[in-house]
Amino acid sequence: MKVIRQIPEMQNFSNVCRQEGQKIGFVPTMGFLHEGHLSLIRLIRKQCDVLVVSIFVNPTQFGPTEDLEKYPRDFERDEAFCRDEGVDVLFHPIEQQMYPSPYLSYVMVENLDKIMCGVSRPDHFRGVATIVSKLFNIVKPHAAIFGEKDFQQAVIIKQMTKDLNFEVEILTGPIVRESDGLALSSRNKYLNEQERLNAAILFKSLRGAQHDFKNGVNNPQEIIEKVRQSILDIPGTKIDYISLVNPETLQPVRRVHENDRLALAVYIGKTRLIDNVALGK
Amino acid sequence: MKVIRQIPEMQNFSNVCRQEGQKIGFVPTMGFLHEGHLSLIRLIRKQCDVLVVSIFVNPTQFGPTEDLEKYPRDFERDEAFCRDEGVDVLFHPIEQQMYPSPYLSYVMVENLDKIMCGVSRPDHFRGVATIVSKLFNIVKPHAAIFGEKDFQQAVIIKQMTKDLNFEVEILTGPIVRESDGLALSSRNKYLNEQERLNAAILFKSLRGAQHDFKNGVNNPQEIIEKVRQSILDIPGTKIDYISLVNPETLQPVRRVHENDRLALAVYIGKTRLIDNVALGK
């Protein structure tokens, strides 16, 4: 496995692969890899000749009061994981090279970036769309994969890829969960023992909603209210949002249909976690 | 010469060129070609194996009260010009394919887009950065060339290309002028006979400023004021802005140095024209 830190070296590598007719698959990450990331690596591995994983904790997607500094990092562990998974290139760029001063250019995906997570994280998706655009221009992948835990992010990336004519196939991989249903996330590390137990309520309440929908409940307010109550029954929880949306437009639905998405962001203590499920599954 | 109207066909063409190791040069235009465009075509022609010219009147760079509808178009004439210049591909996409509904993604280059032309045309450079990003992803050029008449545009494109890691070399070509000094522009067509004569004052006043700087005047206010007065002496003129700026940052200079840029936008009757010169030349 090659570890590349320089942007021009990554571009040259990908140019050569493309000239040789090899298909480049790409998994962009912020590192501190867990089984969720590894599942994405395994999914795209089958579909490409050369597999590139990037590790970059992207400062432009963190708000000024967010956890950029304390976001967990462990490059050596990540490197070992990637080697085990048969990754061909680990791209691990330097922050000053990714955002040299003066840095002025940003990609925005209007409307989709102002709802759901965009309400409490107003510049988050601008940072995401910008770094993914940059990485697409550096790694030059034929296909890239994103996890469904960040459901809104995946929708935004698909829209941006189509709008800006990036010739990149966008794949998604399902959420990987702990045995009690908690979605894997690097931020789960922030939870103390009690919070970790409490965090299981997120998926439990989403499962309840799936069950209710199967039993004929199709009023979104009714579904959302029940999820809200079951979460607030657990001490130390604070709800950021619970939304029941069309899976493509992310617009709230008036009546729930198969495949609509129930998504939420909830604080467990001070840790903000997100999760989502498709209804009718 | 190949005329391509479909985005995937253009992308496939460029993919094949790149696989064959051919260098793609690109001249993006809004059509109604004049000697200014042709000079850019000739400049980049020497440096590439395959020359692509695009013709697309980009709606997102026009304001709601601007001249999108009446902007001059003559595809057959443009096609003949391109054929004569040895252009390999004329890319002439369909508006609904470039901006399918819903279209949500935009590229912004902060700060640089709010000054000079950005004051009276607040969304103009967002539209420019967006369409150029799209065209870079469709045409996949190794090099692209922009005219210096749109000086601010060229600075913004250079910044965007660097920031977003497009692996495209940005070239610029000098302004081509009529015999009385008027910079060539598709919008000169809007001028009536008297306005056309009056329009010569733009370059005449800029030449005067170059002369004054050579004679030791380095106070930007003094230079700008003299340009303003000489333009306002001509009936039917209205000044949008006159700026004396650093050629890289576009920030106003406090004292003029060699190579600083004097740029202006002036209404001649109802037609808004722009022009600029480097001082010390």
Key attributes of the depicted protein:
2 domains, globular, 10 helices, Rossmann fold, 37% helix, Pantoate--beta-alanine Ligase, Chain: A,domain 2, alpha/beta, 281 residues, homodimer, three-stranded antiparallel β-sheet
Q: How is this structure best described in words?
A:
Two copies of one chain form a homodimer. The first copy, chain A, has 281 residues and is an alpha/beta fold. Chain A is 37% helix and 21% strand. The first copy, chain A, has two domains: 172 residues, 3-Layer(aba) Sandwich (Rossmann fold), CATH 3.40.50; 93 residues, 2-Layer Sandwich (Pantoate--beta-alanine Ligase, Chain: A,domain 2), CATH 3.30.1300.10. In chain A, strands 1-4-3-2-6-7 form a six-stranded parallel sheet, with helices on both faces. The first copy, chain A, has a three-stranded antiparallel sheet with strand order 8-9-10. The first copy, chain A, starts with a strand and ends with a strand. In chain A, a hairpin with a 2-residue loop joins strand 9 and strand 10. The first copy, chain A, contains ten helices and ten strands. The model of chain A has no long low-confidence stretch (mean pLDDT 97). The radius of gyration of chain A is 19 Å and the shape is globular. In chain A, helix 6 crosses helix 7. The interface between A and B is medium-sized, with 33 and 33 residues.
